[in-house]
Amino acid sequence: MKSGPQREPAFTTAAIRDSDDPTARVILSAAVQMIAARGYHGTSVRDIAGFAGISAGSIYNHFGSKHELLVTILARGGEALVEATEQALLDAPADPVHQLDAIVRTHVGVHAENPLESYIGNSELRSLDPVALERVIAKRDAQQRIFDRVVADGVRRGEFHTDNPVEASRFVVTACTAVAMWFRPGGRATEEQVIARYQAVARDAVGHRAG
Predict the structure, then answer these.
(1) N or C: which end of the chain has fewer CB within 10 A?
(2) Cα–Cα distance measured from residue 120 to residue 153, given in angstroms and rounded to the nearest whole number
């Protein structure tokens, strides 16, 4: 059996980084697809290797265990989401409405484009050891705090009129995350249309009153 594939995997994932070598890329791609389909405990290293077309030993050359693979998928996905959202916030005009639109666009877009990773993130937290769980949850908390800050700032500046800014912020993040459960490319609504609708829902949730 070949030591490792040299071409890019057909299925790309947010868990893959530019610095990963070709074999690591294929391993991560296969792991996301297999764990999403069968669950973490229903998937073996041998299953992942077979799907990737490599030997099980090749996986252990890159990842110490199946658990390490799961941690890599979830941690990298969370890091990529937070980094993209922080950048969207930096690039947005300095007013709460545009900032909210920008971070909703990023959050919805990332989840619409990475539904398998989102599914794994929601279903396999229970499979993480305590240290890894804390690491992954820390990224989720960081993402939530970005939304919390924008909503709180909008309330302070009189742009948003909700009496429950914390709950409104959580509602927006939860709703945007759930897009991964139902959005499909080629469906009745395009990704851009869905983003626009969720931006409107988010503005309503925080009590924005258009002038």
Answers:
(1) C
(2) 33
pTM score, two decimals? 0.91
In the numeric block, the tokens 């258009």 are attached to 210
Query: How is residue 96 annotated by DSSP?
Result: H
Q: Note the pLDDT tens digit of each residue in 2-17.
A: 444 445 676 778 889 9
User: How many CA atoms lie within 13 Å of 85's alpha carbon, on the beta-carbon side?
Assistant: 29
pLDDT digits (tens, 9 = 90+) for 79-111: 999 999 999 999 999 999 999 999 999 999 999
Length of the chain: 211
CB 73 within 8 A of CB 15: yes
Q: State the Cα–Cα distance between residues 157 and 31, nearest whole angstrom.
A: 46
Residue 145: how many CB atoms within 10 A of its CB? 12
Tell me phi and psi for residue 28, to 5 degrees.
-65, -40
Radius of gyration of the chain (CA): 19
Residues 6+ positions from 65 with CB-CB distance below 8 Å: none
